[in-house]
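Not sure how to ask, but would you mind making up any protein sequence you like and the tokens describing how it folds?
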Amino acid sequence: MTLAARFRAPGWYRVLIALPLAFAFSIALVAAVRAAYGWDPIVQWNAVATVALITMPLAFLVAIGCFTYWFDWALGKPTVPDDHSSHGARSWRDYFKVNTDHKVIGIQYIVTTFFFFILGGLMAMLIRAELTQPG
């Protein structure tokens, strides 16, 4: 698969393009709304962060391929109802893709839960270590 084809297909390559574009869209949207109201179109980073917290997760989900079936259906393209191409895991890389297999989804949830439990525990220990310092 060529590099151009990888950027057009759903996946991590397309995410690398979509997230900076979504952030740039957030900045442009904030500046456009401020200009439309007659305010100085100076970038307000709190407003950009608020808009980016909405646009960037949506851009991630679209770029990774979560909505490909729905977009085909909404645009009237033919859909394959029994398409199980993203069903099951044949390699460890399949756990980092959109998957319709309930076993793979369960493993993704468990690994994500353990990761964030460990991260939360480490942050709690860092806060306790910070509280031991006087002043």
